[in-house]
Amino acid sequence: MxxxxxxxxxxxxxxxxxxxxxxxxxxxxxxxxxxxxxVSFFLYWLLCLIIPESLALFCGAAVGAALAQVCARKMRMIxxxxxxxxIVAFVPGLALYRLMAQAAVGEYSSAAHFGVSAMIxxxxxxxxxxxxxxxxxxxxxx
Length: 142
Fold this sequence. Notes:
The protein is mainly alpha-helical. About 80% of the residues lie in helices and about 0% in strands. It has one domain. It is globular and about 50 Å long.
């Protein structure tokens, strides 16, 4: 269990780092953005053990978006750099691949299952991201 947790944390960190390099994000954002991606994915991974996956996706994306906003303010950078890296590990690429593979061989019922699963994941990531971004904004009191 501890090794699985460490593997989830490290793979999310290095996967996010590779994506930051691939997208040519500013170098000074690589480590903080990778840390945010690792923390948000690790939270998702832990939550998947006790709650439904879609809710865990929402929570991980919300925490990642909130951390991205905070880091962007502290580093005086655009939040999109950090936000993109925070959610890259959540992208349901495998479900979308399986959707296309099943549709290509005529297994439309199975393809629909993977498509619905991917769309639910995408919706939870988008909703979590917007809630996390909204909650992390500073409010000006008048």
